[in-house]
Design brief:
heterodimer; A: alpha+beta; Uridine Diphospho-n-acetylenolpyruvylglucosamine Reductase, domain 3; Enolase-like, domain 1; 3 domains; 5-stranded antiparallel sheet; 4-stranded antiparallel sheet; B: 758 residues; alpha+beta; Aldehyde Oxidoreductase, domain 4; 7-stranded mixed sheet; globular
Chain lengths: 291, 758
């Protein structure tokens, strides 16, 4: 690993100023569980590392039953799943927070970092997309909101402009009779990269027998995480049934544009999207019904 | 976990008990000294520049810019090795093997695998050394690589060594080839055997390149004394092996090299070859300072010695009653960049579990553009067993015969002549099969998406040279010195054999692993030999101590040695009951009766006992995703005598676990340029604890007549059966015969789709 300069700003303003003046020489460090590994492997160089963990706004985790969740970009996974209120309100998010790396990694790794790292396989991204998450960004020209499904632009690339940082993620308040789930397929049982992953969120009507709406997002089957809008929309207004779930899974498979590599083939990945869409929808339905 | 021992006939005082290992607490509290803990004043750090190409001619190397970087103290290339200045004529018959050994350590004319060392740097710290690597200019002529064993065998395949010709049963081939050796054995009349068969099956199998995955990367520190003595501190399975390699590459007498083996964080055969030692030695010579090198995990994957990939064809003929009439196999294994795959062991082990009159085995040792393979736990045997034991499972299914009854019907036993001509001594395969058959695991019901598989395995185990010295201290504690590196509990098991032989307590034996100047030649800790051979040396050295203790007692009592006997740690007069001294009491009188007593022994035994194992695996396969989970696993193994049963169980479990990884997920992925795509533990998928059930063990004890306590050696055979056991279980669960390792979820889905399932 090459030597680098290290700055730990204590305010958003200071961070933005530093980043804006350093251009592509600077890299943002949150938990570091992706970036330090990439730097050690020589896959990324960063003459200047800007550690944003010391900025108060990036460590906020606030939940309000009417406003929803504001999740600071540097909040590590363990803080999310150890917070009983948040864990109860967003079990679909916890699915992701709980399977990124192992316990030690979860002590550092953040959902914000996972999103900014913009890996096609990022386990948190489909879950946040499915939950309707929004990325709150601050830069030299002020603040703006980016839908999570629009945040990743290519493998390892995101929508942040020069000088911008992801401050927090807003996730809408959970609606009544709603449920979500994220599942990934890996050949092992932990510590692996998704061959395919699916996050599903559903809202049912009061009877629990009909879909009001649904959102489905996919991992590891395109250059970026995929928001399979048609797959989710196909369920809106329909009665909960095996056929409806099957149809949504087929639309999700159609939205997947995977490649063949050492982790899986096109056919295997597409097939797994079908399997995981059905499983996550069924789990989300069960959670929506209070299961 | 259920654990038990069966068939043991003899009870001992110390042998067979489970005392705490002497090195255990230091290892779990961070006090133990590993290679990277070696920190001599002024130590420089070395980094190795490695070829980015799997196959390339090195046309020119310019190190001047790197040498000019502040903080860099030396840069070396193959030109700095003595071999570069010695001609074929000067080296004579040793030429080829020495050139291969020297070039393997640092390429002179061609880079033969991605990661092949081409230069090395010593600098004031690792960061400077790393920066300097980018300043070395290497002009490569990139050549087409070959990384598949069968492709490498084809005419017209890219040739690694222009002067390598096939040694075909002693005859040298006419033209250059990547096939280094063809070997063959046969027994009986093959045609007659197959003609007598009612059923003949023939299938092909492949396995991928896999790595041992030891947790500690290779490391070395080198420093020369002012008198020209080279000192090496390193992580190795064989300090004398390192000494020999470094001495021959650097053209030094062996006595000029002293190797101190540090604690070792795993080896499994992969820490026999010396990769960094000579490099650090040359850098240290050039700088006059100590030089330390430590591999990264990626370097370990790309440039140490994995186990070979293989292609195997197996043909077996049986009568309707299950009796095998003829067996035949062809096996090809890739050695990597230089010859020396374990295909010889593979073909010898292939059918060693069976008593068959007619058979023929052929093996091909093939070079290709991968890192030179090294030993990995029973080298060659696991691949061979995967093929043979899978085909036998198919035969059992065709004959509708219980797989254990089939194996009992055909099992090798004392007197069975094996295909390479050796006749089995007392072995315990039948006993292992009977234990497996009667085990509650095998008798339990299984159905649904679950399947059960059985397989057995063989490994010959080794003898070879070992030396032990032990000194009786005046407090009665025995200092035990050995040259065997302690990987799996050697200190404990050798101390137990010493204590048992001397009739003293385990806690009164203090074992130490010493450097190559402090003990006689000792072969590697490998080949499942250490508990057997070093144990024998310890027993003989203890007998030496006993006879000297008798002499001292004779001196004290002013009597004849013949009138004195040594019984259970007490030296006593045969007829005068008044005259007796415990070991400790006599030790206290050594100072006044001539000084210390030391016993010593060097052995080179040939009475090694062959190892056999039988494994039962239950799996469940997710029909939607093809993912296999091993749900229950029982390992049965003949240990001869388990000196320390906990460590025997640990070896059985460790072998089974590595085998499960090999069976399901572990493999090197190469791209078209011959680059390994997955040189990290993230993508080289070894099983983690969540992927494994507790491995149940049953130790069978059929004493080896070649060892006083019956020890056979247990470290290796445990990895031989698991791949076939798991594969057979997957077949039972899914109906898919998986003939290619690893049996990944993707392959299971592909097989489903081929069979018309969606």
């Amino acid at each position: 690993m090459e030597p680098f300069d290290f700055i730990s700003p204590s305010s958003i303003e200071e961070a933005v100023k530093t980043l804006a003046s350093s251009g592509d020489q600077a890299r943002i460090l949150a938990g570091g569980t992706d970036m330090l590994v990439q730097m050690r492997a020589g896959r990324r160089t960063a003459p200047l590392v800007v550690d944003i963990k010391g900025i108060p706004e990036l460590n906020v985790m606030s939940y309000d039953a009417s406003k929803g969740l504001t999740l600071g970009a540097a909040v590590p996974c363990y803080r999310i799943y150890q917070d009983a209120t948040v864990a109860t309100a967003y079990p679909g998010l916890i699915d992701s927070a709980f399977l990124i790396g192992g316990i030690q990694i979860q002590g550092r790794a953040s959902i914000g970092g996972n999103i900014c790292n913009a890996a096609p396989s990022g386990d948190a991204i489909p879950a946040v997309i499915a939950l309707g998450g929004v990325c709150n960004v601050t830069g030299p020209n002020g603040t703006r909101e980016i839908l999570c499904e629009d945040f990743c632009t290519a493998p390892g690339r995101n929508a942040l402009e020069n000088g911008e940082i992801l401050v927090s993620i807003s996730i809408p308040a959970p609606q009544p009779n709603a449920g979500a789930n994220y599942l990934r397929f890996i050949p092992r049982n932990e510590m692996d990269i998704a061959v395919a992953g699916v996050g599903s969120a559903v809202q049912l009507d009061a009877s629990g027998q009909n879909f009001v709406s649904a959102r489905i997002a996919l991992a590891s089957v395109a250059p970026t995480p995929v928001f399979a809008k048609e797959a989710g929309d196909s369920l809106a207004g329909k009665a909960v049934s095996e056929e409806a779930v099957q149809q949504a899974s087929e639309l999700a498979m159609a939205a997947a544009k995977p490649i063949s590599d050492m982790r899986g083939t096109i056919r295997q990945r597409t097939h797994l999207i079908g399997v995981l869409t059905r499983r996550t929808l069924n789990n989300a339905i069960e959670r929506a019904r209070g299961g | 976990m259920t654990s038990n021992q069966v068939l043991s006939e003899v009870e001992y005082d110390v042998v067979g008990k489970r005392p705490v290992r002497p090195d255990g607490v230091d290892k779990v509290t961070g006090r133990a000294q590993y290679g990277d803990d070696t920190n001599l004043t002024g130590t420089l750090r070395a980094k190795v520049l490695r070829s980015p190409h799997a196959h390339a001619r090195i046309k020119f190397i310019d190190t001047s810019k790197a040498e000019a970087l502040p903080g860099v103290r030396a840069v070396i290339t193959a030109k700095d090795l003595p071999f570069a200045s010695l001609s074929k004529k000067e080296l004579g018959g040793e030429y080829t093997s020495l050139k291969f050994a020297s070039d393997h350590m640092m390429a002179s004319d061609k880079a033969l695998f991605k990661g092949h060392p081409v230069a090395a740097i010593a600098a004031v710290n690792a960061h400077v050394a790393e920066s300097a690597m980018a300043l070395i200019e290497v002009d490569y002529e990139v050549l087409k690589p070959v990384v598949d064993v069968r492709e490498a065998m084809q005419d017209g395949a890219p040739l690694l060594h222009e002067d390598l010709r096939t040694n075909d049963m002693g005859e040298t081939g006419e033209k250059p080839s990547n096939v280094a050796t063809h070997m063959s054995y046969s027994i009986g009349d093959l045609d007659k055997g197959f003609a007598e068969a009612d059923l003949v099956l023939e299938k092909e199998y492949t396995t991928s390149t896999v790595h041992q995955g030891y947790i500690e990367p290779h490391n070395t520190t080198a420093f020369w004394n002012s008198d020209g003595q080279l000192n090496l501190w390193t992580s190795t399975q064989g300090s004398f092996q390192v000494r020999g390699t470094v001495a021959s590459i650097l053209r030094l007498p062996v006595s000029q090299v002293k190797v101190t083996p540090m604690e070792i964080g795993g080896g499994f055969g992969g820490k026999i070859t010396a990769y960094l030692d000579a490099i650090c030695a040359v850098l240290s010579k050039k700088t006059g300072a100590p030089v330390k090198a430590l591999m990264t995990r990626t370097e370990v994957f790309e440039a140490s010695g994995p186990a070979p990939a293989s292609w195997m064809r197996v043909k077996i003929g049986v009568k309707n009653n299950g009796k095998m009439t003829a067996v035949e196999t062809e096996m090809a294994m890739d050695a990597g960049a230089y010859p020396g795959s374990p295909v010889m062991q593979a073909i010898v082990c292939a059918f060693a579990c069976y008593d068959v009159e007619n058979g023929k085995v052929d093996g091909y040792d093939v070079v290709d553009n991968k890192p030179k393979t090294a030993a990995y736990r029973a080298p060659g045997a696991p691949q061979a067993a995967f093929a043979v034991e899978s085909l036998i499972d198919e035969i059992c299914a065709e004959l509708n015969m219980d797989p254990i009854e089939f194996r009992l019907l055909n099992a090798a036993k004392e007197g069975t002549r094996r295909i390479e001509g050796l006749v089995a001594r007392r072995i315990g395969l039948v006993e292992c099969l009977e234990v497996a058959r009667d085990h509650d695991h095998y008798k339990s019901k299984i159905d649904g998406p679950n399947g059960r598989g059985v397989a057995c395995g063989y490994w010959p185990n080794r003898g070879f040279q070992s030396s032990v010295v032990m000194t009786v201290n005046y407090d009665g504690v025995v200092s035990l010195l050995m040259g065997s590196v302690d990987i799996g509990g050697t200190r404990a098991s050798i101390a137990q054999q010493t204590a048992e032989t001397l009739g003293i307590g385990y806690e009164d034996v203090k074992p130490t692993v010493v450097d190559t100047d402090s003990i006689g030649y000792t072969f590697i800790t490998g080949g499942s030999r250490t508990c057997f051979a070093t144990g024998l040396a310890a027993i003989n050295a203890a007998e030496d101590v006993k006879s000297q203790m008798i002499s001292r007692a004779a001196k004290i009592w002013d009597t004849n040695e013949d009138d004195i006997e040594y019984v259970a740690g007490v030296v006593q007069h045969k007829s005068d009951e008044e005259l007796k001294l415990t070991f400790k009491d006599l030790a206290r009188q050594l100072a006044t009766t001539g000084g210390s007593v030391s016993g010593r022994a060097s052995v080179d035994p040939s009475g090694e006992g062959n190892g056999y194992a039988v494994h039962i695996a239950d799996v469940t396969v997710d029909p939607d995703t093809g993912k296999t989970d091993v749900t229950r696993f029982t390992a049965v193994q003949d240990a001869g005598k388990a000196i320390h049963p906990s460590y025997v169980e640990g070896q059985m479990q460790g072998g089974a676990v590595q085998g499960i990884g090999w069976a399901l997920n572990e493999e090197y992925f190469f791209d078209d340029s011959g680059k390994m795509m997955n040189p990290t533990f993230l993508d080289y998928r070894m099983p983690i604890s969540l992927d494994l059930p507790m491995i149940d063990t049953v130790i069978v004890e059929v004493a080896n007549p070649g060892h006083p306590y019956g020890v056979r050696g247990v470290g290796e055979v445990a990895i031989v059966p698991p791949m076939a056991a798991v594969g057979n279980a997957v077949s039972a669960a899914t109906g898919n015969r998986m003939r290619s390792l690893p049996i990944t979820p993707g392959k299971i889905l592909e097989a489903d789709w081929e069979n018309g399932k969606s």
